[in-house]
Design brief:
This protein is an alpha/beta fold and about 425 residues long. It is about 20% helix and about 20% strand. Helix 4 runs parallel beside helix 5. It is globular, with a radius of gyration of 20 Å.
C-alpha cells in the first residue's frame, strides 16, 4: 500500500474566527469550508506557542521550543541562533521514503549552521528566511546546499500565488512517489498586500483579501490533486502558527497573538482532508496540538519515530474518529514560562499582560470551565476546590519539568535595530 502524500498548509497569524466553518462571518472561505465538509474540523487545536518561531519549531520537531532554545520571543534579522541541528524534523523523519519540500517562510535561523532549511531534511526550499516585514528580505530557492537568493525584489503582493505555484510544481514532479510538503504561507501576517491578480472584493478589507486568496488557491490545489489522481492518496492539513495580530478574529476566544495565557493566541483552525481515509463532515472536540503532526505523519507512513523524546502524540485515530485524544492535558507557554494548563474541561490561567506589566496571576486564582465558558470570562475556582488543587498540581509539575530546560541555552535575542520589526 502506498504511503500517503502529506501536505501541511500553515498560515501566519490567521485567527480561529477568520474562516467560515469555524464561525467566521466577514471573510468568504468556501474552499476551506468545503475541505472541512469533506474531512474533519478540530475545535480544540492548539499552536504550541503564541508567536511565530517557537510555534514553528514545535510543529516541525514535535517538541516544545523550550527544548531547542527557541521559546523566547522570535528570531530577528540580527540574531545568529536557530533550530539546533540535533533536532529531528518531520522532513528528516520521513526520509528516505519521501520527497520533501519547504515552501514559504522558515524563521528558524538564517545563518550557518542553521541555514539553509535543506540541512533539515528538505530536498527543496523556495521561500523567505523570516517574516516578510523584516529587513533585509530576499526570496531564496534551491536544493541541497545549492540555495541562493533571487536578484529581484520580493513581490509582496504575489507571495501567496508564488508559493502555491511552487507547491503544485513539486506535486506534479513527484506524483509517482510519496511526497511531503510544508507550505508555510506568509499571509495574513502584516504587511497586507492583496494580489491584484486575485482581488475578490472582500468585505473584510485587505485582511479579508489575502485570506480569500489563500482560500482560492487551496481550491486550486485540491482540484489539481483530483486531476492527477492523487486525491485519495494525499492528506492535506490546514492550520495557523498562532492567533491573529492587529487584524483578524479570535472567534469566541479571549485575546490574540502574544497575549500570554489566553485562548486567542493559541487556539487555531485545523482542518484535515483525505477522501477514503478521513470520514467526511466530522467535527472533533478532542485536545490536539501542532506538536502532534510529526508523530502523526510517521504513524500514517508506517514509520517509527527516533529515540528523541516527543511532546506530541499520534492523532491519526483522532483524524478518523477511531480513537479519542491521546492528551490528558496541554501546557501553554509564553516565552520560557508555562502560563496555563488545559484539560478537556478545565483551564488554569497563571499569567497575563496589562500595558507594560507582565502579570503573574497564580494567586487569584483563574480556573475556567472551557465547556461552559470558552471565552474565559468567569473563574469558578470557588465552586470546584478539588479541581483547582488538581490543576495547580498539573501546572507546578509542568513548570518543574520544562522550565529548567531554558537554562541549557544562552539568551538568543540580539539587540533590535531600527530596521527590525517584531514578528
Amino acid at each position: 500500500m502506498r504511503k500517503p502524500n502529506i501536505i501541511i498548509i500553515m498560515t501566519d497569524d490567521l485567527g480561529y474566527g477568520d474562516i467560515g466553518c469555524d464561525g467566521g462571518t466577514h471573510i468568504r472561505t468556501p474552499n476551506l469550508d468545503g475541505m472541512a465538509a469533506e474531512g474533519v474540523r478540530f475545535t480544540d487545536f492548539y499552536a504550541s506557542a503564541n508567536v511565530c518561531t517557537p510555534s514553528r519549531a514545535g510543529l516541525l520537531t514535535g517538541r516544545y521550543a523550550i527544548r531547542s532554545g527557541l521559546a523566547h520571543e522570535v528570531i530577528q534579522p540580527a540574531d545568529t541562533t536557530g533550530l539546533p541541528r540535533s533536532e529531528v524534523t518531520i522532513a528528516q523523519a520521513l526520509k528516505p521514503h519521501y520527497a520533501t519540500a519547504l515552501i514559504g517562510k522558515w524563521h528558524l535561523g538564517h545563518v550557518a549552521p542553521h541555514w539553509p532549511p535543506t540541512l533539515y531534511g528538505f530536498d527543496r526550499f523556495y521561500g523567505v528566511p523570516y517574516s516578510h516585514d523584516m529587513r533585509p528580505l530576499a526570496l531564496f530557492e534551491g536544493a541541497g546546499e545549492d540555495v541562493a537568493a533571487h536578484d529581484d525584489k520580493v513581490d509582496m503582493a504575489r507571495l501567496t500565488q508564488r508559493f502555491f505555484e511552487q507547491t503544485l510544481a513539486f506535486v506534479e514532479a513527484n506524483r509517482d512517489a510519496p511526497f511531503f510538503i510544508l507550505l508555510n504561507l506568509t499571509a495574513p501576517h502584516i504587511p497586507l498586500r492583496p494580489n491584484p491578480d486575485d482581488l475578490t472584493g472582500s468585505p473584510a478589507g485587505d485582511y479579508g483579501e489575502v485570506v480569500e486568496e489563500i482560500d482560492t488557491n487551496i481550491g486550486r490545489l485540491l482540484a489539481r490533486l483530483k486531476d492527477l489522481g492523487l486525491d485519495e492518496d494525499t492528506l492535506v492539513m490546514f492550520t495557523s502558527d498562532n492567533g491573529p495580530w492587529f487584524e483578524g478574529s479570535s472567534g469566541p476566544f479571549r485575546d490574540r497573538k502574544g497575549g500570554a495565557a489566553w485562548e486567542g493566541g493559541y487556539r487555531v483552525p485545523f482542518i484535515a482532508r483525505q477522501p477514503g481515509r478521513i470520514p467526511a463532515g466530522r467535527v472533533e472536540h478532542g485536545l490536539a496540538s501542532n506538536l502532534d503532526l510529526l508523530p502523526t505523519a510517521l504513524g500514517l507512513a508506517g514509520l517509527e519515530p527516533s529515540t528523541i523524546e516527543l511532546d506530541g502524540r499520534d492523532i491519526s485515530g483522532l483524524l478518523t474518529g477511531e480513537a479519542s485524544s491521546p492528551h490528558d492535558q496541554i501546557a501553554l507557554f509564553n516565552n520560557n514560562h508555562v502560563v496555563a494548563v488545559r484539560t478537556a474541561r478545565w483551564k488554569l490561567v497563571a499569567r497575563s499582560y496589562y500595558r507594560t506589566f507582565d502579570a503573574p496571576l497564580d494567586g487569584l486564582p483563574l480556573l475556567f470551565d472551557m465547556q461552559a465558558d470558552p471565552g474565559e470570562t468567569y473563574s469558578v475556582a470557588r465552586n470546584y476546590p478539588e479541581v483547582l488543587a488538581d490543576m495547580r498540581r498539573r501546572l507546578a509539575d509542568a513548570r518543574a519539568f520544562y522550565e529548567p530546560m531554558a537554562a541549557t541555552f544562552p539568551p538568543h535575542i540580539a539587540p533590535a535595530s531600527a530596521a527590525d520589526h517584531p514578528d
